[in-house]
Write a structure and sequence with these properties.
The protein contains 7 helices and 12 strands. With about 350 residues, it is α+β, with helices and mostly antiparallel strands. Strands 1, 2, 3, 4, 5, 6, 7, 9, 10 and 11 form a 10-stranded mixed beta sheet that branches. Strands 8-12 form a two-stranded antiparallel sheet. Helix 5 (about 215-220) crosses helix 6 (about 290-305).
Length: about 350
């Protein structure tokens, strides 16, 4: 079974509701440090005072004391699901799914986890038992419409034969997940989310520097996981475009255990692993320039292939172009002149 990187969940000794969490800086050479500084200016690497991604970057305080309570904190989303694994052959292609209750979800695997996925297939073929306990990363794809539910799938990390040899298998029960990220609202989801970003490493920094904008954006794409947390210890951050920068605040970094609920396609809070932290671990995010470049390249590729984006969604523009393109038929009623007066009600006869 593939190994994972669990977080060391040592109990904190402090009684304050929020912890400061600036990880200790890594020992890096001058060239690497210069690359980090350049990427921080471009909005690719979060600084020590990193705020919510939609906000502007905060200034970096070079001599800021280290007040980290747990320097091992990482962005993470990993858990256990149990269900019937299905391998479906469609022509020359094969896709895989897992059925949990009465719902079916797609299964994915990264190239580095292909051996674990192939081992899962051999296990099912050898035992004839399709119901398996899998270690997975949750994959949520949100859409522009806030009322449109996200697509939910799972990326296979490994599977458990019942030996309980892995740390994650010992820590988590079926349908339980360890979620560590920024607690906030995002524009495309009505439910607050835990936003899980890519953890910063020198190796990932080197990869990003050599990649094209489209690959950068895809690699650094965050995972936003809807979470229902009644009586939350801290409220989720909500960006207010009308409020001044100094009054915006920022999302806190939380580390929790949550249960995946299939009928809601979301997570429900179970327990707190660590106290919320004001400052998250260092992470990677795509800059606005890279996002714009990647989008322009995608549009150009679709146009060259004879395809194009559909009409814009949402409210029609001032000219009404969106509504005019989609509306068919004749409008009901006559809107010219003054509205007709309704007849006065007849007086009730007294009995």
């Amino acid at each position: 079974m593939a190994s994972t990187e669990p977080i060391n969940n040592k109990p904190t000794k402090t009684a304050v509701p929020l912890e400061s969490a600036t990880p200790k800086p890594e020992q890096v050479d001058s060239d690497t440090q210069n690359q980090v500084n350049n990427l921080e200016k471009d909005g690719v690497v979060s600084s020590k005072e990193q705020s919510q991604p939609a906000l502007q970057e905060q200034d970096v305080t070079e001599n800021q004391p280290d007040t980290t309570s747990d320097s091992s904190a990482l962005f993470q989303a990993i858990g256990i699901i149990t269900g019937k694994v299905n391998f479906i052959l469609e022509g020359d292609n094969q896709r895989s799914t897992i059925t949990i209750g009465n719902k079916e979800y797609p299964l994915f695997y990264a190239s580095r986890k292909q051996r674990a996925f192939e081992a899962l297939k051999k296990e099912i073929e050898a035992t004839g038992e399709p119901t398996q306990r899998l270690v997975v990363y949750p994959k949520f794809t949100h859409f522009p419409g806030r009322d449109q539910p996200p697509n939910v799938g799972f990326q296979v990390v490994g599977f458990d034969k019942g030996r309980q040899s892995e740390v994650i298998s010992q820590q988590l029960q079926d349908m339980e997940f360890k979620l560590c990220g920024l607690w906030q609202f995002i524009p495309v989801c009505r439910t607050p989310c835990i936003s899980v970003f890519k953890n910063f490493t020198k190796e990932r920094l080197s990869y990003i520097k050599q990649s094209e904008p489209a690959k950068k954006v895809k690699f650094m794409k965050a995972s936003h996981l809807p979470l229902f947390w009644r009586d939350a210890l801290v409220p989720p951050f909500r960006f207010n475009p009308k409020a001044p920068k100094e009054e915006q605040g920022r999302p806190v970094f939380i580390q929790i255990k949550a249960k995946f609920v299939p009928h809601r396609d979301a997570f429900e809070f179970d327990s707190l692993l660590e106290l919320p932290q004001e400052k998250p671990p260092r992470f990677l995010k795509a800059s606005k320039d890279d996002k714009a470049t990647a989008m322009a390249q995608k549009k150009a590729a679709l146009k060259a292939a004879g395809k194009d984006f559909g009409p814009p969604r949402g409210k029609p523009t001032a000219e009404g172009s969106s509504a005019e393109r989609t509306f068919k038929g004749k409008p009901k009623g006559d809107f010219k002149g003054k509205p007709k007066q309704m007849p006065k009600p007849k007086p009730k006869t007294q009995q």
